[in-house]
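Subject line: Sequence and fold of a protein, written as structure tokens
Body of memo: The sequence and its backbone structure tokens, given next.
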Amino acid sequence: MIDILNIIPGKKSLSQSGWHSFNALCCNHRGHRADTRKRGGIKLADNGWSFHCFNCGFKAGFFIGKSITKNTRQLLKWCGVDDNQINRWNVESLQQKDLFDYSKKVKEKKKIKFNDFVLPDAELIDDNNINHKIYIDYLEKRRLKSNSYPFLVTPKLEGRNSNRIIIPFTYEGKIVGCTSRFLDDRKPKYINEQQQGYVFGYDFQKPEYEFCILCEGIFDALSIDGCALTHNNISKDQAQILSQLNKRIIFVPDLDLTGLKTCDQALELGYQVSIPDWHPDVKDINDAVVRYGKFPTLLSIIRSASNSKVHIEMRRLHVRKRFK
């Protein structure tokens, strides 16, 4: 009834996950910078379609048998459709109401909650404490300032626990877990106290950010003010947490075989994937920040971001050659 793909002007590309991408019309109408990176998306269904702008967050949709919503009406008007035509479509849709059963309520997603967590008895890193020099030196090697996050240490303990940095996990300002990064060469390097579905760095994301950089490692997220999965797959609960940000998600895998596999999952979720052309010695975001600096690394991630499976596969093949 409403052939939205023909109504939306401009070129469109189809992603593997079913999104038709194009330059969104809504951004400049809503006080945002005009979209030039195809952040608008249409996903078709048997009886309608959904629209989402991954830049300004505007959403709309249409399903036969239902009334045309305020947002959908506004989207159509931005595309040049007049009120008379929209009203005709609305009447035609409602005339077919009996053909579609929308009586079943969509089951609401259970809001993910995390339990309070008590951190170990530890000291906040202090630049003036000579006993903390080993920890400060380690952070400096990773291009992180000791006061950039509430890092904790336990130098008075014995064994491995005296040689670790504790990184608290927060969600909506509440302590919900932590990880210990041991500075010796033994494994495991990390011991996590992480609740199911938690995404590190959620609290870093600010309303004015246009996108969220998603990666695997905690130090990668700290280097770029992004979010970290802390493992190499995206769980259903983590995807739900990330959807609450209402931002364009750019996934940057670790440049190893397991990290590259996660790209398919990210594309299926509608995320963009970025595999920048970094030096072969650079294995992840933190390595890139150490080598190039924070802002050049961020710029390279944004420029390489794509939701084209063909483009991503070509980049993966290029990286896989390192492992042969």
Remarks:
- The chain has eleven helices and 14 strands.
